[in-house]
Design brief:
heterodimer, A: about 450 residues, alpha/beta, Rossmann fold, 3 domains, 9-stranded mixed sheet, 6-stranded parallel sheet, about 15% strand, elongated, B: about 500 residues, 7-stranded mixed sheet, 22 helices
């Protein structure tokens, strides 16, 4: 059987269970009997199988119209030449999890951490099919064996942010036309609400990703504050006539790292009694590290002695940060920067710190803050959003992050007053919540599979 | 730099410092520094530092740089002053102002403070003859404000986006007394002063350009002036799949202005709800966001349009459907054509005319398909350009209008068709649904091809329905531009001294 006929037969088998080879005209007749072109999942399925890729939303709609006007055998004609080549996709109706970035990248960002921890736990209790997009081709492959798949009447979970155009468009097609149930983790809407701090290109691509999420069944934000962003965005959909997904907050856990034996002081050549101010996070503008440096300088000028340790990679628009850091250093200020660090090193630093500082302008969650408090170390953090939610009353000092003077006062107070520091450290009680809890809660939101026809 | 240039720059700096000093420096200290640029600079910076108000830093920056700052630029300037020793105050402050500002922008520029005024940014409408959507709002509202004697000042941008300037005579006329002006290119002149909003209200009836948005966000964030704006829609965000990525990107930066603004005056209740949703998302960053008001746009057509349309009623040989709007995916013309093709195959007799421009790339394929369909006996055509009289006559002679867009801030073609007395097939959500609430429309889900087909068939064949809708349309009271301009002024001037 040639590839076109095999594709047509596979569609018939998947939809009605009707098996077996037949001449092309009979196969097409079979599909016309069992599929309705007004239901665009028919168009998605036929195009997806013939093209061996996820068809774009525009193509699905226009193919459906050609089919309705002229019949299936006429509509498929322009597709046949291309359809003779390429692997035949497997029509996949199980629980698919799109881990395109997580499977590709050796690094662990906060987002990939969430995806990895969740999937590892889901795999113990349920059957899942991790998949990834072939960059730029609109082809979805299984991670395990590289098999090309076409989701149909499946469950599709997106635990990452899809800001690559082709991928985001393909996922929109799946959400709209594959008759699947869809769920995504919502991290934040920062590129929409705080675009001025983003790298160029991000806000535009993020808006497209949001227009894809608009067709999902469920989005699960990682905190109630992030949930407020997504609920606000969902209300914005009214003009487009879209209901948008159901928004259900599922708070991230507060992970406590393994106690590290690592002596970070020796590694950084620091005296045993040198007070440390620890800052974890990349130097992107939203993290507000410029004002933080300024605040530290104000504290140093008051005669306070401490070493500032910053762990985090470079990002965009860091020229001013680098210039100020170098200037302060050459004036003799103790500033240690590390672009990367192992988990052990980071936990070792938290535990060695007098105080940590996390004065971001907008966060969906604020992992470094949670980690600091989990390690029992007081933090200076922003007086709004997820940071105030997490840190307020739990050992964090809340400040206006746009005021270097306030940041400086808070750091100074913790550094200079052991009793105050002890009081804060004693208050660092986080709700007990594990990755198991998180993964379980999330899984209950994955819709049950839609009934097959 | 030659000696003459240097001394011209020096004089200009002194002039600029003298312009801002009365706003920042106590009289006694200022008078002792008049005429001495180094002394005056020190007095201004000391006063700003001691005052601690971000607005003061903003005004001082403008005086030193002869340009508005972005937020990172202003923060860098503030930090330099905050950390500078007494002896290095002036040199550190000057060094923090980016080199780019001192080279490509004009160091000899003078500045003029506009204090306690209502300022209207017409940067696009003043410099372009383009006249659709937003420019029509600008050119309808501002002449009425002017005629009513409301005090306001028009602003345009310098070519290098250093800041505001005064629009010249041609540009003022383009906004206040619009008529075809030949489209002469206009730009700023070298002698233009930079106009500096100070404790004023800036009103944005347009969506400014990318770079301008970054400067305006800083104006509002610093508190130098507050900002009101007209909210037209949030299409580049929530319907990002129908626009270019660059358009979404620019709009996201515009939202940075929106979130620091005082008030959004939305052109429909739907758009009000869209912006209210955005404001709801701001708690994550500790911002209250603007007040969002709904001030529904005018629905009015010129008397001449009504006359032309009325005269052409009944002149069409075939029942005509007209589909108005620029050619783009969001307007859903493909769905309209699909429904029409099916009606044609059902044996219905009609004529369908698409009217609207757009990029040639967007409509070239579509127009080829229309040609093919014509060769098969279907009466369908497109007009990419059409004069006003011809358009009004076409609408007047049509049986109904089809406008089933996926997303609109207002849906002007729906309102205008109704104002000219013809029924409309339109979308059952958002602003189009709002307009349809006044009568004269059949509403359908624009993402449902069958519903569009059924709606078109009903309007084409059901004479009783058509007659009822036509009489509903005729009974709709116009909302005039006078009303809109008045309500908008009330909103924009709220809380300002008269």
């Amino acid at each position: 059987m040639n590839r076109v006929d095999a594709a047509l037969a596979a569609i018939a088998a998947a939809v009605s269970g009707e098996q077996g080879p037949a001449p092309r005209s009979e196969l097409i007749g079979r599909l016309e009997r069992i599929l309705d072109p007004a239901d665009l999942s028919s168009s998605y399925l036929v195009l997806g199988m013939l093209r061996a890729r996820i068809p774009s939303p525009t193509d699905v709609v226009s193919f459906g119209r050609r089919w309705a006007l002229d019949g299936l055998s006429t509509a498929v004609k322009p597709e046949l030449r291309a359809a003779r080549r390429g692997p035949l996709p497997r029509i996949e109706s199980r629980l698919l999890v799109d881990v395109s970035d997580t499977s590709r990248s050796p690094y662990t960002t906060g987002i990939q951490r969430v995806a990895r921890e969740s999937i590892a736990r889901w795999e113990r209790s349920t059957e899942i099919v991790p998949v990834r997009f072939d960059r730029g081709r609109g082809v979805l492959r299984t991670v395990a064996d590289d098999q090309v798949v076409l989701p149909f009447r499946s469950r599709f979970v997106l635990p990452e942010i899809a800001v690559e155009r082709e991928r985001s468009r393909s996922i929109a097609s799946i959400a709209r036309f594959s008759a699947s149930r869809t769920m995504a983790i919502g991290f934040d809407c920062i590129p929409m609400t705080t675009a001025e701090t983003c790298g160029p290109g991000m806000p535009g691509e993020f808006a497209h990703y949001l227009s894809t999420l608009a067709h999902f069944d469920t989005v699960a934000p990682i905190s109630t504050v992030s949930g407020d962003e997504f609920r606000g965005w969902r209300r914005m959909l009214v003009g487009a006539g879209l209901a948008g997904p159901e928004i259900v907050d599922v708070a991230l856990p507060f992970a406590v790292g393994e106690p590290a034996d690592l002596d970070v002081r020796r590694e950084l050549a620091l005296a045993a009694d040198e007070p440390l101010v620890v800052v974890v996070g990349s130097h992107e503008p939203r993290k507000n590290h410029l004002r933080l440096l300024e605040a530290c300088e104000l504290v140093w000028r008051r005669g306070r002695r401490f070493t500032l340790v910053m762990v985090g990679g470079n990002a965009w628009s860091t020229e001013r940060f680098v210039a100020l850091r170098d200037r302060l250093r050459s004036a003799g200020r103790a500033i240690v920067t590390r672009s990367t660090a192992t988990d052990d090193e980071v936990w070792g630093l938290y535990r060695a710190a007098s105080v940590t500082a996390f004065v971001s302008l907008n966060e969906g969650f604020g992992l470094p803050l949670a980690e600091s408090l989990a390690a029992g170390v007081p933090a200076v953090t922003s007086d709004f959003g997820s940071m105030a939610d997490l840190g307020g009353g739990r050992g964090a000092v809340l400040v206006d992050p746009r005021s270097p003077d306030q940041i400086a006062d808070a750091l100074d107070a913790v550094l200079s007053d052991p009793e105050y520091r002890a009081e804060l450290a004693g208050a660092t009680q986080l709700p007990s919540r594990s990755w198991d809890d998180y993964a379980d809660d999330l899984l209950t939101l994955v819709p049950s599979a839609p009934a097959t026809a | 730099m030659t000696g003459a240039d240097a001394s011209a720059s020096h004089r200009a700096l002194l002039d600029r410092l003298n312009e801002v000093a009365p706003e920042l420096v106590a009289d006694a200290r200022r008078q002792s520094a008049v005429g001495d640029v180094a002394l005056l600079a020190r007095e201004v910076l000391t006063a700003v530092r001691d005052g601690g108000e971000l607005a003061g830093y903003w005004l001082a920056y403008v005086a030193f740089a002869a340009a508005f700052p972005t937020e990172p630029q202003l923060d860098g300037f503030r930090r330099a002053i905050h950390l500078a020793s007494e002896s290095d105050l002036v040199t550190d402050a000057l060094a923090s102002i980016e080199i780019a500002h001192r080279t490509h922008r004009r160091s000899t520029r003078t500045i003029r403070i506009l204090r306690d005024e209502i300022l209207v940014d017409v940067g696009f409408s003043a410099t372009h003859v383009h006249n659709t959507g937003i420019q029509r709002v600008v050119r309808s509202v501002l002449p009425r404000w002017s005629a009513a004697g409301h005090p306001f000042t028009l602003l345009a941008w310098t070519a290098d986006d250093a800041g505001y300037r005064e629009p010249n005579g041609v540009e003022q006329a383009r906004v206040l007394s619009w008529g075809a002006d030949g489209g002469a290119h206009t730009a700023d002149s070298p002698d233009d002063a930079l106009l500096v909003p100070w404790r004023s209200r800036i009103f944005l009836p347009e969506v400014p350009q990318y770079e301008q948005c970054r400067l305006l966000a800083c104006v509002a964030a610093s508190g130098a002036a507050d900002i009101d704006l007209i909210g037209y829609d949030v299409i580049p965000i929530t319907s990002a799949d129908t626009v270019m990525a660059a358009e979404s990107e620019r709009f996201a930066i515009y939202l940075d202005v929106v979130k620091r603004s005082r008030a959004v005056h939305a052109i429909s209740d739907t758009v009000r709800d869209e912006f209210a949703g955005f404001v709801g998302a701001l708690s994550a960053q500790g911002l209250p966001g603007p007040v969002v008001n709904g001030v529904s746009l005018a629905v009015d057509v010129p008397a001449a349009a009504r006359a032309v349309a009325a005269a052409s009623v009944g002149t069409a040989e075939l029942p005509t459907m007209v589909c108005l709007g620029s050619h783009e995916p969001r307007k859903n013309q493909e769905a309209v054509l699909f429904a029409a093709e099916r009606l044609h195959r059902e044996g219905r007799r009609f004529r369908l005319v698409f009217v609207g421009g757009g990029s040639r790339r967007a409509y070239a394929g579509f127009d080829r398909r229309l040609a093919l369909l014509r060769s098969r006996g279907m009466n369908v055509e497109s007009a990419r350009r059409m004069g006003d009289d011809e358009l009004w006559a076409l609408i007047g002679s049509s049986r109904f209008s089809v406008f089933v867009s996926l997303h609109e801030g207002f849906g002007l073609p729906v309102a205008e068709s109704l104002a000219l007395g013809i029924p409309v097939l339109t979308s059952s959500h958002g602003s189009m649904h709002e307009i349809a609430g006044h009568g004269g429309c059949v509403e359908v889900d624009p993402r449902d091809d069958e519903a569009i087909l059924d709606g078109m068939r009903a309007l084409l064949t059901d004479d009783a329905l058509h007659e009822r809708l036509a009489s509903e349309a005729a009974a709709i009271a116009p909302r005039t531009w006078d009303d809109y301009a008045r309500l908008l002024w009330d909103g924009v001037s709220e809380g300002r001294r008269r």
